[in-house]
Write a structure and sequence with these properties.
By secondary structure, this protein is α+β, with helices and mostly antiparallel strands. The protein folds into 3 domains: 56-105, no CATH class; 114-159, Membrane-bound Lytic Murein Transglycosylase D, Chain A (Roll); 163-279, L,D-transpeptidase catalytic domain-like (Beta Barrel), CATH 2.40.440.10. The protein contains 7 helices and 12 strands.
Length: 281
């Protein structure tokens, strides 16, 4: 009987030792192998980038814009850019937000950043712009006008904007802000430093120029729609924001080069006196 008990105790101890060894093997050898295998299975194939975790939020904003829900899409994009400043979708989000902002501004419809103006006797676009603190080209574009002549009693939706321009040379980006908030960004295709060794230069738009066939043309003329636009900066002789991808009729001098369509757009949106900050840091 005693021998039987001894045998059972020995078997129990051997089983405990074997079980402990098996458990130790599992936790320290087998389990890490399985976890490594799972991580490997979930990892993207070699040569492919790691998926961006911000993609679902960006795609939601895309869907809202695709469904023409512009106010909701704009709010979603503003939130996205605030939450994910380093997202790989940032440039796409900024482009999309800029397109929405511009489309709403130039929709001809009432909005929180517009005032309604009823054309009176003697009114021309310049006079309306002066009365409403806007600029004639922006009023023209925002209302989809096809001529500069106005009719008495005509209703105009006049944008009330307060634009500033921030230029970031290292990022090759020009950003248009409205009351300090992002409105739209533009790519710098070319730029030439001012030659001043200062990190930041504060200036303003001194003049808006349109060139056609080597000569300046005024807004409202038949040559104006096909002209190349540029913005001259105050205190910086020859320094302009110009169309870098169009050589004919391009004003001389150094400056900040953007696409011709972007130069035209900026020429329409901003006014003489618009503040410009050039950051070379």
């Amino acid at each position: 009987m005693i021998n039987l008990l001894k045998a059972l105790v020995i078997l129990f101890l051997l089983g405990a030792i074997a079980g402990g060894a098996a458990g130790t093997y599992y936790f320290f050898v087998e389990r890490p192998k399985r976890l490594d295998a799972q991580e490997l299975a979930q990892a993207p194939p070699a040569g492919q980038p790691t998926p961006d975790p911000t993609t679902p939020d960006f795609e939601k904003a895309q869907a809202l814009k695709r469904d023409l829900q512009y106010p909701e899409a704009r709010d979603a994009l503003i939130g996205f850019l605030t939450r994910y400043p380093d997202s790989s979708h940032r440039q796409e989000a900024e482009t999309m937000l800029g397109d929405i902002n511009l489309a709403e501004l130039c929709s001809g419809k009432p909005g929180p950043n517009k005032v309604e103006y009823i054309v009176q006797r003697g009114d021309v676009l310049d006079r309306v712009a002066h009365k409403t603190k806007s600029n004639p080209e922006l009023i023209y574009q925002a209302n989809g006008l096809d001529r500069i002549m106005l009719r008495i009693g005509q209703k105009l939706e006049v944008p009330q904007v307060d634009f500033t321009i921030d230029v970031h040379l290292k990022q090759k980006k020009l950003v248009l802000l409205d009351r300090g908030h992002f409105f739209k960004s533009y790519v710098l295709q070319d730029f030439r430093p001012l030659g001043k060794k200062v990190p930041v230069i504060n200036t303003k738009v001194q003049e808006k120029i349109a060139f056609k066939d080597g000569r300046r043309v005024p807004f409202g003329s038949k040559e104006f729609p096909a002209s190349l636009r540029s913005l001259t900066l105050a205190g910086q002789p020859g320094y302009t924001i110009y169309a870098a991808d169009a050589n004919p009729d391009k004003p001389g001098g150094t400056g900040l080069g953007v696409a011709a369509s972007d130069a035209e757009e900026l020429h329409t949106l901003v006014s003489v006196g618009t503040p410009v900050t050039i950051d070379a840091k």
